[in-house]
Amino acid sequence: MLLGIALLAGWWVVRRSLPRLDGSVSVAGLRDGVIVDRDQWGRPWIRAKSAEDLLLAQGYVTAQDRLWQMDLLRRAAAGELAEIFGIVALDFDKENRTLGMREAAKRAAADSSPEIRALLDSYARGVNRYIEERHDRLPIEFILLGYKPRKWTPADTYLISLYMYKTLTSTWKSKLNRQWITERVGAERARDMFIVDSPLDHYIIGGVAAGQPRAPVAEHAKLGMHVAAASGKAPPFATQEWEAARAFLEQFEEESSEIIGSNSFVVGGSHTASGKPLLANDTHLGLGVPCIWYLIHLTAPGWNVSGFALPGAPLVVIGHNDRVAWGFTNSNADVQDLYIEKFESENSRAYRANGAWAQASAREETIHVRGKPDITFTVLVTRHGPIVHRDAPVEGGRAYALRWTALEPGGLDFGFPLLGRAKNWDEFIEVTRRIAGPGQNTIYADLDGNIGFTIPARIPIRASGDGSLPVPGETDEFEWKGYIPFEELPRALNPANGFIATANGRTVGPGYKYFVSDRWAGPYRTARMYQLLEGRSGLLPADCNAIQNDILSLPDKFLAEQLILATRSNRPMDARVKALIEKLRSWDAKAAADSIETSFVEYTRHALFHNLLGPLLGDETSKYELWEPRSVYNNVWWRDKVFLENVFRTRPAAWLPKGFADYDSLLIDSANEAVAQLTKATQESDPARWSWGRLHPLDMSHPLGRGTALHSALSIGPYETSGTIDTVKAMGVGHGPAMRFVADLSNFDNSLMQITTGESGQFASPYYRDQFPEWFAGRGIPVPFSEAATDRTRAHRLFLLAAGASPPPH
Description:
The chain has 25 helices and 30 strands. It is α+β, with helices and mostly antiparallel strands.
């Protein structure tokens, strides 16, 4: 009886925190009433009579569904997680405090334009109204952790935007790791490894015509020119497994900071059934519960926009209005540089700058730690930025300062949500003038049939070098000379082929006059989308959704072909290897969940990297489990498979490891190692048990449900899943398509939108995980846009009333 009473009491606590979705509620600060309709998926359509009321209502409604997630994100960005989670979050907090993210967000809020500040103030008032209303009926996470949220401020919105900025642009740890690898393998081999070009690249701008000289790349290739003396130590920030209690911290930031697979494409009317464009986008981030995206439709004078919002930020980031549609993938524009500062001594604030001693400024940071005394530490800031790393042990006071566009004045200029107001290409481009970053491959389509592309961002112009490695900070030789002028940013309108596709790969060719990046993702997803789009006509939204879920792996196909050819001169000794290579002859190169071939090829590739690089990296290779998707290489190596394919196409003697007669024997030996590792990983000797889905499970965890008794209630999975990081359906360990979007410019009612879980972040809500089955199966969910179509799908109606107003008659 007592247990039953306890369960009922617990359920009552959980249920009473659920928001009101029907009826009416008074919301202080509204000038007029607002209607909030929700469809069968819980997606809100907010209709207001002014932009001010619209934003206030959006803040209120988003807090209804995602209040704890909003609080968690702002705490993560501000470095305030240890206050609620304890000592386990201390290192995470220290990093974001060192970067000065909280100060940057406050500065951005104070410097924002009157128009942006008005939007942010209205949104904050809506969030705070909900916090006040529900202060004693908060979501269960607040109850379990024993705290209440503080008021929302405009700076909190900038914090969340900056957190996303960080996950999409952080390269400084990778540059330290790349420095370490370059020290170990030498500059010449490093140039081979960190290759920029691939025959599969599809440039949107900057392509070079046949016979035309390519732009010089000498400065970008001097990898070893400014490498510090080799220490022989392991890379200081190689990816490593975290204990379960800390794992929730990486599910968004650690996973998302790698290149993991966003896709976008837009096709003109010559390729579609309707004669109007289709635009598709699926952004890939860390997959957790709740989803990082929130679906919403917003209508007020001057606004009628539907799409994907960030919890904690106003308006819509990706989506469409009644005239245009747009989407993003990370461009990987390099906007961080590391400067090696020479300090007078380990404890000194004096550092060298142009032949003199300069004084670094100091900032004291105090972190409140749950159950422990406060921890205070000092952050030093040079003319380049905060000191983010020191060599250990300190040698001559060498330290690394980070320069990052996000921390520069105006670096957080707020522009993405304003895209929803544009009505044509010219207006759209003008709005992008207000976007400082992060640099996104931005695709566009409109009702007039236009399709376009741009990368709106502040991208540095360097006086020397390309920032791929840490550079001396004592002179001005490697300073930034400014940013690429807005009018000269990468841009294209209505290309001759009638479509544009991006997938974090190289979009800017050698003919473009400015350096954008050398950390492009592999070209395989882009190349596959071009294969699927070229020559196509009569495309429908469902066809675009099918492309988003394509699982053919081009690099696996290449490696399978190499393995088949290798058997001509080398007979595998293990019968299982022989049988598996024989199966590759009829394999379709699709990474299905039940594919044995995918497991075999993927593990063979890991063995090849181990055999090629192990002798060069020495004993350190034993410290990293190279059979796992996370390894020392993945943390820094954007084009690892391009390097591997170059090696096997040219088969240079310099890269053939000692002990191997030729590359065919290297392939077969690596296949033998892969079979041994698969046996170990699965505890099964029968290859029939080595399905890719078993080795590649999807487990979407709630921050409080990872590795705890709450997992089954709060989290989703594990489920065997298909796809690799190189398929268009890019699936990795803990990350994948956080949303899918297809806009039909002929009739927006035919558009498809879905997120991974559901609109609500409260597990007792019917909208907590209801979209997951459709997302997992790859089925697009229609999202009506017109009033008539939306009314047909209405499941709830809530009236938000101005103070003193009477509820309307039902």
